[in-house]
Amino acid sequence: MEILVLNGSPKGDLSVTMQYVAFLAKKNPGHTFPIVNIAQRINQLETDPVAFDAVVAQVRKADAVLWAFPVYYMLVHGNFKRFIELVHERGAAPAFGGKYAASLSTSIRFFDHTAHNYINAVADDWGMRYHGRYSAKMSDLLDPAERDRLAAFAAAFLAAAARGLPTARAHQPLVPAGGRYTPGPAAAPVDTGGRKVLLVTDEGPDDANLAAMTARLAAAFTGPVETVNLRDLDIKGGCLGCCRCAWDNTCVYDGSDGFTAFYREKVEPADIVLYAGAVRDRYLSAKWKSYFDRTFFKNHVPTLSGKQFAFLVSGPLAQLANLRQILEAYGEFQHTGFLGIVTDEGDPAHTDALLDRLAADAVAQASQRYLPPPSFLSVAGGKLFRDEIWSRMRFPFVADHKYFKANGLYDFPHRDRADRLRSFLLYWLVHIPAVRKQVYGPQITTHMIAPLKKLVDSL
């Protein structure tokens, strides 16, 4: 069979992901694995219809499709995302219909599941037979056990495609949500108190609802709101994955476009940051995705830390649990006072009320310097970054290591010696049957609440 590999790495053949594909080709000599470097060639595919049509013809000819990509900011690279948009815009999705598909990613496994969920949903939308996903850590190929696991996954995928085995659809078609959003006047605009409010949008001529939402939110503040459209920014291209920034946060594009200057001069000094975008397929636009990718010049540092932050989304977000999780996780792992997401899905008057509340909450939380407590989304991700940068990723991410060390993010093992001694003693004491009977009886629940109850009683 011919397994067409759609390569989502901007580095083309020099991608870690493609080494996994090369391994699969070596392990399965009875099949062919032609590769199309989609992300690397996106400018050509967008501007040259002949080149785009040639890729579609390859898809039509193939027996199955392997989506292979590195994970960038919880999704595929912005260039890969743009290819998916082009398929929609040019009516090329039928070429993918009925094809068996699988997805293969490489990463440090930070929100790799949301990237695979997205590809799974796109495959479902195009009528493909999605077999499953394989998420590899970048160095897994060096481990014999992991090589065996990857080979087993590929064997199952090839067998399913050869035998025409049934596959389950995980995502139902999207239903258009809401209608035209016509805003009313702001009820009681809130004074920003001199705080800097930045609203970044990607609205275009067809995004009437998004434009109305951003204008209505800006009117909910009495102070100035600086609005920047991504379409007007000087962005020469997407992240190259070159890791030039890993040494000192200097982007390879510095001096040739204006992105890092914009981020440093507008985003980082703002007190309240608001991002607004419309749903494109099952994410925001490729332009937004490239924006997030380019912010990686700051590597794994939370550059929005301490800011009040929110998203405005035009489109059926209620049907896109995966996108909601991505947006919520972004607000969390950036260490922001995340204010939530407002959409245009409901009654316009209710959307107005939500926008008014968003403005009021942003100012109130900024004045109180309130940040919500973290959840699993940021705690787990933070520990993953901590462990990786401490060990394997200290090189090349030298700037990250310096930041993590200076800000106390290397918090293991904890230094509470009294707690460690207590845990050590109790661990061995409960090996004594008589002590164990007492500890795991009524005492344990009383002991758990004792310090908390003592504090509450003292108030």
TrEMBL record:
For this UniProt record, give its keywords in alphabetical order, as a comma-separated list: Flavoprotein, FMN
Q: Which Pfam families match?
A: FMN_red (PF03358)
Keyword DNA-binding carried by entry: no
Q: Where is the NADPH-dependent FMN reductase-like domain?
A: 1-108
Does the UniProt entry include the keyword Lipid metabolism? no
- For this entry, the protein name equals NAD(P)H-dependent oxidoreductase
